[in-house]
Amino acid sequence: MIDPMLPNHRSEPDFMPRLRRIFADGLPERVARMRRGLDGVAAAVAAGVPPEADHLEELFLASHSLKGTAPGFGALDLGTDAGTLSAIAQSWTPEAPPSPEGLERARYLIDRIEAACREVIVRTDAGSGGEATPDPASTSRPQ
């Protein structure tokens, strides 16, 4: 790993722990954004009207950004689940809203994402930096 450098070219040993802390602290809001987006989409579908683009976008952006950042902090399963949710959300449009099964799959993924976020927060609070230890059982997931 390259040592993080300050502008005056001194090494800053607390740089990565601070970044992990910022990442972990932002996870609850990311999950809340996913839930708000999905709740808005689900409410529209239940009412028989097209979902608003804002709700679709909120769900997509929150999951897509987590897909990209989580692996950099060692949370590979979190990144994978966020990527799956991102792809699902991207396939939905006001003209092509989700099916009830699609909504359930998205809820399931958000629940998994939330649990993984809690694990990252606990590891970060414990000082292990939030980096996940590979778990062979985590490679099998229902589709």
Structure, described:
The model is unreliable at 130-143 (pLDDT under 50). The protein starts with 14 loop residues before the first helix and ends in an 18-residue tail after the last helix. The chain contains four helices and no strands. Helix 1 packs antiparallel against helix 2. The protein is elongated, with a radius of gyration of 17 Å. It is mainly α and 143 residues long.
Give the arrangement of secondary structure elements.
Layout (H helix, E strand, L loop, with lengths): L14 H33 L5 H17 L6 H16 L8 H26 L18
Helix pairs in contact: 1-2, 1-4, 2-3, 3-4
Mean pLDDT: 86
- The SSE order reads HHHH
Please outline the major beta sheet: none
Count of helical segments? Answer: 4
Give the overall form: elongated
Provide a brief overview of the structure.
With 143 residues, this protein is an all-alpha fold. Helices cover 64% and strands 0% of the residues.
Characteristics:
mainly alpha; 4 helices; single chain; 143 residues; Four Helix Bundle (Hemerythrin (Met), subunit A); disordered C terminus
